[in-house]
Amino acid sequence: MRIEIIHKHQWNDFLRLQSLLMRNGRRSETISKKEMLKRLYHVFFVDLCIQKPPHYTWVALSGNNYLGHLWGCVLPLQLTSEEKKLNLFNVVVDPSCRRKGVGSKLYRQAEIFCLKNNIRVIDCQAKLFNKGAMSFCRKNGYIVDGVLFRRELL
């Protein structure tokens, strides 16, 4: 398995990436690298014009098979700080590949990216009801550091 980082991009590019990778709703289809690059080319050709904050996607591939991806955004650690953190918002692993280390390898590549870019904090999000995600985060060394409160307005 190899992990490839997609160049920094914007949120709408991430959504387009997801839809492009999921032809006919199947994530695990076999496509050639040339076909994948063709699908992604128009998503990222404006990379030189990207606004802050930068978003990154790590994609796990086995041969030409899509196994999963991890998406995150580099943000200031605090509003008045020059230090940065990586917020991980979305990890998706194909159901047939779960519990085989794909998610852990994606997280590890994000950690390596952070170390190379002098980013010392990674935040990730998981819903309290998502026991699998909570267990995954703990297994990979993440701790609960607060609670997000939500109120839906009608």
Anisotropy-based shape? globular
Note the main sheet.
Answer: 5 strands, mixed
Kindly provide the radius of gyration, computed on alpha-carbon positions and rounded to a whole number of angstroms. 16 Å
Write down the secondary-structure element order: EHHEEEHEH
From the N-terminal CA to the C-terminal CA, the straight-line distance is: 46 Å
Given helix and strand content, the structural type is alpha+beta
CATH class: Alpha Beta
Kindly state the percentage of residues in helix. 25-40%
Query: Which stretches of 5+ consecutive residues score pLDDT under 50?
Result: 41-51
Number of helices: 4
Q: From the 3D structure, determine the CATH topology.
A: Aminopeptidase
Please identify, by name, the CATH architecture: 3-Layer(aba) Sandwich
Q: How much beta, percentage-wise? A: 25-35%
Let me know the average pLDDT.
76
Strand order of the largest sheet: 1-2-3-4-5
- By CATH, the superfamily comes out as Gcn5-related N-acetyltransferase (GNAT)
Describe this structure in words.
This protein is an alpha+beta fold. The chain has one domain (2-139): Aminopeptidase (3-Layer(aba) Sandwich), CATH 3.40.630. The protein is built from four helices and five strands; from the N terminus they run βααβββαβα. It has helices at 11-21, 33-44, 102-116, 131-139; strands spanning 2-9, 55-62, 65-76, 84-93, 121-124. The protein has a five-stranded mixed β-sheet. A hairpin with a 7-residue loop joins strand 3 (65-76) and strand 4 (84-93). The longest helix has 15 residues, at 102-116.
